[in-house]
Each structure stands twice: as structure tokens, then as C-alpha cells.
Amino acid sequence: MEFFDVKLIWGQSGYLAVGATYTLGLTFLSMFIGMAIGIIISLGRMAKNFLVRALASAYVDVMRGIPLLVLIIWFYFGFSMLIDYEFSPLFAGVACLSLKYSGYLAETFRAGIQAIEIGQSEAAFSLGFSKIQNLRRIVLPQALRIVIPPIGNSFVSMLQDSSMVMLVGIWELMKRGNSVANSTLKPFEIYTTVGIFYLIMTISASRINRYLEGRLKLIR
Amino acid sequence: MTEQTMETPMIRVKDLCKSFGDLEVLKGISMEVKKGEVVCIIGASGSGKSTFLRCLNYMEIPDSGKIYIDGEPMGLRKTKHGKWVKAHSKDIYRMRAEMGMVFQLFNLWPHKNVLQNVTEALLIVRKMKKLEAIEAAEYFLDKVGLIDKKGEKPAHLSGGQQQRVAIARALAMRPKIMMFDEATSALDPQLVGEVLEVMEELAKEGMTMLVVTHEMGFARHVSDRVIFIDEGVIAEENTPEGIFTNQKNPRTKVFLSKVLHM
């Protein structure tokens, strides 16, 4: 037996590459939804109303405190049984990833929004902006630029964590690697390749993030 | 125009009170500003003059008292039964848009260039068409002498230039009143003059102005009336000549002797 079967990897890399695109797609979609939820929760964390603040804060605690693996299993196998509804694997995967990350992202956005000096908003209000107009036109555009680095970090983490949704049966990179490894009985070669695929994606994502950070830097 | 509307003061304030926790900042301020009048408010730091200004456009919500802007109550409305209740937000927004405010720290938006800083409110609040907004913004940037900087980001301008952009931003809304909250206090001494010049020009054009300032020269030579606020009350209201040469209240004299190093 060869020590490292290059031919096998060559033969399977196309199949795995398709999985990698699923991984990317899954991550982008979950990140987008997680950010949307995160912004709403971050606003809740800063709300005047005590109840809204408490609820948002509890949400953050819960989402940050449950391991992703537990959340996925609970959601797909437990919760679906409780409400007697079978989620599609894609829905379950995206839901768990976005919910889990929205907790972190909410705190990221809160930090970003609070980094904008109050004077920025006061100027907007003095000109007749409504609260929503101020948020949309003045606060968020600046806050989003400030949080590009931590959002990039979250994206890189999520890329890796998305491997856990193989459990619900989405044919992303890890699931495909797992299946090929089992059928070829060459786990070393296959999982090495899978790892390299993840590395290529995470390192590229970090580089792109760094580029965007420099490009969109807020000059204050 | 009926005689009564001609007499309606641009700003009328009655018994305005405001506390922050236990700290009573404004203890019943009443005053009026007529249309086209330039009124300077002087007083020590912490005397409540900035808070007073910020109450007028409801950036701070007064605890009690009434504010009328061009005859319209600010922040409050009367119900059918004659009770005063909090006004609708959109009415507060609408009235704020009529009252320009210039801040000590300029508060330009760093993510927008000079022109966008001026057009933003025209587009968002006034719902102007883009070209119309740009035309208006360019007119006012030209007026403050900064038309050649319209593509720059605020961070690339000097403090004096930033403040002139902030003035253009407020003016472009064509407000009825311009309020200046220590507009020159954060500037290097050599940059104060260019901002005061713009303000003086505005005063000459007949803009109604309420100016919180430490610039005693401006108060003396440009304003029609000077109000001295001390410990949350109006200690003296007088003509500029009167305030500076013939004080009615000994406290005014004490304050002025400190700031003018007399």
C-alpha cells in the first residue's frame, strides 16, 4: 500500500470541491441571516425599554452559551419531534448556524454602534432626522465599517463550524469527505485533502477581510 | 400678514426648567427672541447655557415650561380637552429641521465627503431631488468659502473649515433660526476668526440667531442683545453696551471681569 495515494485524491478532488462550494454557500447565507438577526438583537440590547433589553440580553446569553453541536442535534432531532415537523437539512443547518452566530454578532454590532460618537447622531437629529433615518444613514454605515475585522473573524469561524452540519445530512465538504473516506478506506489522504480545502477557504477569507478593512477604513 | 403674526416672536420660552438627577440646571428661564434678532448667551461653564439651547430643539427634554418656535409649541401639543401632552415625534422632527444647530465639535459625518454632509439632510429630510440638493449644497458651500473642498472628507479639513461646513449643512435646510453652541470653543485661536466672520455675515443678512459663546467681542459688536445666565437663571438681559459697560447685576460684572481679565 502506498503511503500517500495522490491518484486517489486527484480522482476525488472534484467531488470534494463541489462540497467546498456548498460549504461556502452555506456560510454566506448563514452569515447574512445571522447579521440581520444580530443587528436587531444589538438594537434590543440598547433599547430604552427594560423588558426588551432583558430579552435581548437573554437571547445573547443562550446563543453564545450552547455548543453549536448541541444546538444542531437539539434542533434537528429534538425540537422537530416536539413540534412534529421535519425540517429540511438545509433549513436546519442554516438556522442553527445563523442563530448561534447571531449571538456573537449582536455583541459585535453593539460595540460598533457604541463606538460612534453621540455627536454624530445629535447632528442628524438637529437636522430633523428620525431615529430610523439616523440609524440607516449615519450610525450603521459607520458601525459596519468599524466591525469589518470582527465580522471577518466570525466568518472564518463559521466556515469551520459549518462542518458540523454534516450531522443533519447536508452534502457539504465534511460530509462528502466522510463519505469518500468510508468508501475508499483512505481516511488519511481524504481528511488531509478536506483540511487543505478548509485552509484555502479560511486563509482566502482572512486576506479578503484584511483588504476590505484597509479599503473601507473610516478616516476620523 | 396680520399685526399679530408680525409680533409673534421667533422664539418664546416660558419658565423652562431642567434637572439632571439631583442637579438643577435650568431654574425657570423665560425669554423671547424676535425675528431677525441676534441674541448672545454668555455665562460660566456649567451655568446651563448649552442645556438651554439643547432644550429649544428638544435634544434635551425639559422637565417643565413651554417653548414656542414661531408661535408653535415645541415638543408639546394640546389635546381636545385642553391638556398638554407630548407632541408626536414627526412634529418634533419637522420643527427641528427649521432650527439649525451648530455644535462645538462640528459633528460632521466622517463617512461622507463635504458635499454629501450638506446634501444628506436635504435628500433624507427635505426629500429633494439629487440635483436640486447638490445645487443647494454648492450654493451654501460657496457662501462659507469652501466650494473647492466639496470632494474632501471632513478629516482632511482644518477645524475652522469643518465648522464652516457644519454651518453650511445647517443653512442648507433654510432654517428660521440658527443656534450656535460654543461654535468656536474647540478651535485653535487662529481659526476662530474665519468662523466668526461667517456668523457675522449671517447676522447682517437678518438671520435670527441664538449664540452661546465665550467670544465677548462677537457678543459686544454683532449681537442685538446679550443674556447672562448664571446658576440656571437669567441674571441679566441687556443691550451689548449695557452688559459690557453698565451692568445691572453685580454678578455680571464679576463674570465679565474674569473672562475679560479686567
Explained architecture:
The complex is a heterodimer of chains A (220) and B (262). Chain A has 220 residues and is mostly helical. Chain A has a single domain, classed as Orthogonal Bundle (MetI-like fold), CATH 1.10.3720.10. Chain A has helices at residues 6-45, 50-65, 68-82, 89-114, 118-126, 131-146, 148-161, 173-184, 187-215. In chain A, α1 (6-45) packs across α4 (89-114), α3 packs across α4 and α7 (148-161) runs antiparallel to α9 (187-215). The longest helix of chain A is centred in the first third of the chain and has 40 residues, at 6-45. Chain A starts with 5 loop residues before the first helix and ends in a 5-residue tail after the last helix. The relative contact order of chain A is 0.16. Chain B has 10 helices and 12 strands. Chain B is globular, with a radius of gyration of 19 Å. In chain B, α4 crosses α5, α5 (130-143) packs across α6 (159-171) and α6 packs parallel to α7. In chain B, β9 (177-181), α7 (189-204) and β10 form a beta-alpha-beta unit. With 262 residues, chain B is α/β, with parallel strands linked by helices. Chains A and B meet through α5 and α6 of A and α3, β8, α4 and α6 of B.
